[in-house]
Amino acid sequence: xxxxxxxxxxxxxxxxxxxxxxxxxxxxxxxxxxxxxxxxxxxxxxxxxxxxxxxxxxxxxxxxxxxxxxxxxxxxxxxxxxxxxxxxxxxxxxxxxxxxxxxx
Length: 104
Prior knowledge:
The chain is α+β, with helices and mostly antiparallel strands. Helix content is 38%, strand content 27%. The chain contains four helices and four strands; from the N terminus they run E-H-E-E-H-H-E-H. The relative contact order is 0.30.
């Protein structure tokens, strides 16, 4: 699947709070019918959280409208205050599956 991955590097003192904000945001998006579109993954070091936005088809990247829905201004402002770094540009063939994605 084609997807955009946003890498969010936490500061040592904000990791848990940042993770909870991202988890709540993704859960809210899933509640709005985006469970097949957006997910997240925490890297093994616990300092990097990947926010993943999947395209509608295997070779089609997500539309700008989809990215804007996922990365709304209020959400970005909240995580920018806690993140050490926000990095866009990774292409990852795998997709993290959150618990709410599996709920039907």
